[in-house]
Amino acid sequence: MHTRNFKWISIISFAASTLILVQVLIIIFSGEAACLNKGCKVVENLTTIRPLYFNLIGFLYFQAVCWLSFLARRNTFFVELSSLFLLTGRAVEGVLVAYQIHVAKTACSYCLILCAVLLLVNALQGRKQLVAGIAVLSGIVLISSMLSYGPSVLLSKQQTINNGTYGTRTCFTPKKELYLFFSENCPHCKNVIAALDGCTSCNFHFNPVEELHDFDLDGLNRTASYDPEINKLLLKLLGIDSIPVLLEKKQSGFSIIKGEKQIVDYTKQTCYLADPLLYLDSDAQSKEEEIPLFSEDGECSLTIDCDEEEQQQ
Predict the structure, then answer these.
(1) Interior CA angle at 107 toward 155 and 258, to 5°?
(2) pLDDT over 60 (residue 280)
(3) pLDDT confidence of 149, banded at 50, 70, 90?
(4) Is 8 exposed, middle or buried (0-12, 13-18, 19+ CB in 10 A)?
(5) Residue that finishes a domain, picked among 149, 183, 207
(6) Is the model's pTM score more than 0.70?
(7) Which CA distances in Å does 108 have to 44, 68, 105, 164, 195?
(8) Domain ends where: 120, 149, 178?
(9) Angle between the 77-99 and 51-72 helix axes, to the nearest 10 degrees?
(10) What band does 288 get if pLDDT is binned at 50, 70 and 90?
(11) What is the mean pLDDT of residues 164-189?
(12) For a FRET experiment, which of 29, 51, 136, 192 has its CA 20 to 30 Å from that of 4?
């Protein structure tokens, strides 16, 4: 390979490490990373180490690639070592891309920029290196699509379902904690919210799947902040692609109720009566089923607006 290509690899890698260093400084001084979209925050919250340390590892990696490529211009031994480092980076990025596709269900623009840089420097090291890099990336993404990612990998220790709560309406002597996943544009969600009035034994947490613009409810205590992407991610990891959805929080996990009519019936017979009906007592469900699921029609798709659905019918 021409030594000029190694020069460009050094320059590009140094530029990438500088970008990461800027990100590190932003995290140190502002407390959070800078990103072009909200997907970065979702992905960061799903890592087991702090974003600061994650970026420091990336900085050291690109610095290593930079200097290995510089030395490869003078010693052939460093050519092979540089190729190995680039393939390692390609493999790591493959895992991150697969994780965004199959688990986070959202894209991190910052991660994708670094992924593109790695693809570019692999290409500069020759056709064989480029093909090997693409093969590693494709293989990891493909095998990841065959794996099952359960709800246990949903959130890091720093994030819970409460981080997606827009507001809570607290009742007197609550016996249950219920989380309603909804959209303000979904008519079925509006009907459910309208029915949640005068509750005497349940706390209702309102978890929207999108940013709210005109949502007002009597007795609602707003939270300091909320992230609707967390709610959307939770539903997707549970295999749910429609709203409204009601989650009942229990010591052993959650029970799920889907659909307008089923949610309204459930809340009326659980939160409004002194003695809830037995058939709606999720504790009576089979213990083999970790998350009891009640489902019925009266739902809006997470990807198709309800108004569009009604026009198609």
Answers:
(1) 55
(2) no
(3) low
(4) middle
(5) 149
(6) no
(7) 9, 28, 10, 19, 38
(8) 149
(9) 150
(10) very low
(11) 87
(12) 136
